[in-house]
Amino acid sequence: MANYSLKVNGKVYNITSDDDTPLLWVLRDEINLVGTKYGCGIGQCGTCTVHVNGVATRSCLLPASRLEGSEITTIEGLETDKLHPVQEAWKELDVPQCGYCQAGQIMTASSFLKQNPNPNKEEIRNAMNANLCRCASYNRIEKAVALAAKKMS
């Protein structure tokens, strides 16, 4: 067992877990932030995406014990006072069907738009390509990312 602290959504948490416990399970089981979902467990679907130091990262693969000193942001901490422009766009365009993958989609999109605030359609498609949606909401997801880019500029 390892003892370490994690800074998640601006708050420091003292954690005791096995050295190899993925961040996903520490977030859900130790800190009780359940917005980050389990999808495939092998980093292929993007459902578990969070930001680590501002970069979209698959939390199912990353041992939490290695993240001491990092800034971790989950869907719950994306914005505290109001919806993030990506969340606003998702809501405005009614993107989700089942909603299961949407936290990961939103976290990927918000990180992408921070890096590329004025993307074209192909750049959006490429950025979001690694996040799977079983409901196939891809067209609405791409439109929402484009709308969020406009809202952020």
TrEMBL record:
Any Pfam family hit: Fer2_2
Residues in 2Fe-2S ferredoxin-type domain copies: 2-78
Keyword terms: 2Fe-2S, Iron, Iron-sulfur, Metal-binding, Oxidoreductase
UniProt-listed CDD domains: fer2
Organism superkingdom: Bacteria
Alphabetical list of PANTHER family matching this protein: BLR6218 PROTEIN, OXIDOREDUCTASE WITH IRON-SULFUR SUBUNIT
Identification of the protein by name: (2Fe-2S)-binding protein
